[in-house]
Amino acid sequence: MSDEKTVRKKIFGFSSNVFYTGIVSFLTDISTKMVYSVMPMFLMSIGASKTSLSLIEGVAESTASLLKAFSGYWSDKIGKNKPFMLVGYGLSTVVMPLYATVVTPVQMLFYRFAERVGKGIRTAPRDSLVAGSVEQHETGKSFGLHKAMDNSGAILGPLLAFFILSLKPDSFRFIFLLAAIPGILGIIVLIFGIKEAKKKKESLLQKFEFRNFPKRFYLFLAIIFIFTLGNSTDALLIVKANEVGVKVTFIPLVYLISSIISVALAIPFGSLSDRIDREKLLIAGFLIYAMVYFGFGFTGNIRIIIVLFALYGVYSALTDGVQKALVSDLVDKNKKGTGLGMYNALLGITLLPASLIAGLLYDKINSSIPFYFGAITAVLSALLMVVFVVTKPKNR
Asked: Does some domain include residue 258?
């Protein structure tokens, strides 16, 4: 066990902190994915273009992501994670029903930014709590559980949205109001279920210095930057599906296909990453992503689009939790929150140029080019990960 005082109780073979954090993410993702699965259609119904749609997502994610690095560092400094989680999840839950009042894209940008601020505050401390509540050989499995729970919410959320739209088409605002309920339940679980993974005072991070992080950590961040530059908002995948003939009512169902696949594979892939090099799974994930994006650019067939959404779920299971586990491996114990915060901040900040590039290519050239661009950056990232593996020190 690490030098942190962690909760030893196990639930279904997982730390109680990991389990309840997964429940919180499950409930929160029901809320956010109810909204997210219909938001592109809602925004276009009030006059948003593809470029403005990408801009809203990019600005909201990128600017709020600066908080991920700060909150991660601050949680390492004071040795506490739960307060940041309470503030972050609470803010997102408060903002959710306010989407129902939106009448212009600019208003949506403001609310999306506020909701993403909540995510920026909570993400790195939450990931640090997970990493600090488990044994080293269970890191991948634990992040895999979190990803599976997260995506389980991403399944139920779009299903609820589909059910509501089936009963009453275009009832976007009612969906936004209803989405607040699971968010509130998540706050309750957080308050009563999660215990602080306290750290010894002498082990707390005293000062942030870039030189105190290993070179391989920065090399990995550079690879993630290149990959994320071609990984624009998923909203464009939804728009593409609609343009090839998927009706608005069925968009949430198509979107959740990837979540179902990811839920089924997240824990097995996470556990596998505890036994073999995590980098090898990331290489496979990047290559599958390249196939998916090339397919989105090439096809106009609904059936192929559905298959591509399924493959997108495989990519997600191979990479999301595994990347966090690898970051946790690369940094020292008292810097996990900071390292994970820098990683999460990079993802969010890079989404702004990525989304702008994709949106402009979509609007100004054609709908295929942004997907081809994403495929190219994914292949390049896979090649760089091969170099990352080849240059890995023998003693690691």
From this structure: yes
DSSP 327-340: HHHHS-GGGHHHHH
Tokens 């709908």 identify what position? 367
Domain that holds residue 342: 15-194+211-390
Between the alpha carbon of residue 9 and those of residues 23, 139, 366, the distances in Å are 16, 16, 54
Task: Specify the CATH number for the domain of residue 47.
Answer: 1.20.1250.20
Q: Mean pLDDT over all residues of the chain?
A: 85
The answer to whether 95 and 118 have CB atoms below 8 angstroms apart is yes
Whether the Cβ atoms of residue 258 and residue 313 lie closer than 8 Å to each other:
yes
19 to 61, 99, 396: CA distances (angstroms): 27, 30, 29
List pLDDT tens digits, range 54-77.
777 767 766 667 788 788 878 887
Q: Residue 92: how many CB atoms within 10 A of its CB?
A: 25
Q: What is the mean pLDDT of residues 212-228?
A: 92
* 17-56 per-position pLDDT tens digit: 999 999 999 999 999 988 887 888 888 888 877 677 777 7
What's the mean pLDDT in 81-92? 93
**Residue 140 CA, distance from chain mean position:** 16
Q: In 82-91, which positions are buried (b, 16+ CB within 10 angstroms) versus exposed (e)?
A: bbbbbbbbbb
> By the 8 A CB rule, do 236 and 357 touch?
no
- Is there a domain that residue 4 lies in? no
Whole-structure pTM over 0.85, yes or no? Answer: no
Q: How many residues does the chain have?
A: 396
| Predicted local confidence at residue 95, as pLDDT | 92
Report which DSSP code applies to 391.
T
Highest mean pLDDT: which range of 168-182, 253-267, 333-347: 168-182
Asked if the structure places residue 274 within a domain, the reply is yes
Closest Cα partner for 251 from 166, 372, 320?
A: 166
* Count of domains forming the chain: 1
The answer to whether residue 396 sits within a structural domain is no
